[in-house]
Amino acid sequence: MDCLRRIAPPLALAAAFAVFVQMCVVLAGRVPAGALTVALTAGALALALLRAPRPVRALRRLTRPLVLQACAGGLLAVAGAPALIAAMRMTDAPAGSIVVFWVSGGWAAVAALGAAAVALRERRVLVAGWSVAGALLAVAGVAGVVADWERPSSFSPLVRFAPQELGMLLGGVLLLAGGLLLVRVASSSGMDGTLLWASASGFLVSLVWWVASGVPYGWSALVEHSVEVVLAAVAWGLVCALWPTTLRTFGPAAGAASLSVTPVLLSALILLEQFVGVAGPQPLVVPGVLAGSLLVVAGVCALAHAHGAQASATPRTLMLASAAPALLALVGLLLPAIAVRADVTVTGGVFAGSWTMNGAESVAGWAAVALAVLVIVAVVDARPGWPVAATLAASAAWPWLLDVPTHVWNPALAPGIQQYYGTEYGSIGFTALPDAAMTGAVILGAVTMVAIMAMRRMRGRRSHIDNGGS
After folding, report:
1. Does an H or E element contain 454, and which?
2. What is the rounded distance in angstroms from the CA atom of residue 241 to the CA atom of residue 199?
């Protein structure tokens, strides 16, 4: 029970962030960006007031320089991060799967790489290695999940709306920078007052933006989507309250783990709806979703393990062997991996075409790279148990991602052709091609991880005997 209570903030953060992302997919583009940001920051301010038993005293506890820092953190994290999502989405473009990819996987990668940068500055190379491995696994896993939410998928990042998508990714940078700034202020003046100043500044700036962009239209949109807006505001308020707490107690790597599980939780909800019979047809490609989810779980285990990682003496032969899967995986990115066939029949003509995508255009290719990077890190860790076990499970499910592309939309084809995919007028299919390098990387990586675990267990037994154990 004590352990569960201790990890409650990251767990609650994961649940709240999943709700926030889902509501953003529903609302962004339908509610004006200024109005939506005001609603979200109002939720953050309300939660900050509720958690402070004496708000006036908490506000006065901060000196003027600390107030300025707290307000800056609020502008970045409380207002800036969601404002970029709201401003960059145009109704249904980018698609919901792409929004989830960048806001969940992208923001998680930003936080994990931030943790790696901090660790390198402190000369903790192994911690940085686990953080990088967790970031790669999280991004590959999130891509695998969202790309299998439907077939053909709407998932085509950086193909049609690259500026908008990169703008959403920038929101993760603002969230991390603002969160770390709030942690710095809270370390000397308490979290209650820090969150109050941060959320108040975010709300006021958002209100100015809304008024400048036109209140009447935004108000009518808020009323029309009032239930979703309230859910989004409460969820974002919880995220703003839990994010600095998680960063302060567990570090950015744990925060990244909480952000990365969003598509897994949303997929579980869809499957639950199917189980209880309250939803329509099943849109998910279940094997691909499961494989992507296992990659996310492996990434979470790597990120959770990063903070307490300890280096261990490792035979040079095993260290050299651990690099082989990564080399094979990189070669696999260059080889043909997926065969594509598209057929479209519309008034005025027929299109029938086929082409080949290489490993760098397949989710399995990048998943192989992520798995291989974890092998390199695990081989020098004293106790890599949970991350290795999760990675072995993800490796076993990896073949389910072989025919999953990183993008469906082909920039070389006319949009007028591709818009008919998935309708009665057009179809597109993907078939996995043999990629010996990519497959060899995953198999060799799994064998190396088994060897790592066997070696660590034998070393533990010898240590136990040497210490007089029975």
Report:
1. helix 436-466
2. 10
